[in-house]
Task: structure prediction
Amino acid sequence: MKKVSFIICLFLVACHSSSKITTTADRPNQSMIFDGKLFTALYQQQSAEYKALCLQAYNFAAIRLNEYKATSTLPKVIITDIDETVLDNSPFAVHQGLLHKEFDYNAWFEWTSKAIADTVPGAPAFLKLAASKGVEIFYITNRDEKERESTLRNLSKYNLPNTDNEHLILKTNGSSKELRRQQVAATHEIVMLVGDNLGDFSYLFDKKSTADREKNVNFSLNDFGKKFIVIPNPGYGDWEGALLNYNFKLTAQQKDSVYKAVLKNY
Result:
């Protein structure tokens, strides 16, 4: 009899526990965005496949660097993005996702001021390899001027090369990096560019539609894996902005509607 009573108690506890499990569909006011950001951050932090993809990209970069033939006597340089290319900001995505909040500049500034972001797998070894070959590193990022000190502190934490004001080029007039790339190209020969967003490579991807971005990927086909090294970033990027027509004032529910409209189902 005691055994039967014990089993019944277990059943009741299990039923009570299962009633606590909910999904986004059970929460009409909850956006799929927050669960999605948490899931992509989980992939970034825990997936061996993510690490392997980053290492694969940087291994290709090292091969191309070793094969590179100079075309001028100008100093050689590699231009790299920072966020999700050199530094891993997935803890920020987790922090916001758990609070059911989207990207917020004040929260972002609070995160970057800590200067505690880890590195993306493969990034330090590759950048140090480039430096050992006499190649300078320029960090072109869309971080703000107010983040300069903490950014340099975070990069310096890992003894990355050229972590100084001259080689850190922050956002000034808009998010496009084209003018900043041209600024570097005026005095240096660009060996390659490394980034997680297509705008890190060419003006062809600045504020373009999804269709134009795909068309320009095909146009630039021969550059990927050679001059352009792409680091995976499942969490955010201009691909998301393109879907929203770069209207970031939409509510989370409005964004959900856009995302669901383009998802393929059967």
In short: The first helix runs from residue 2 to 18.
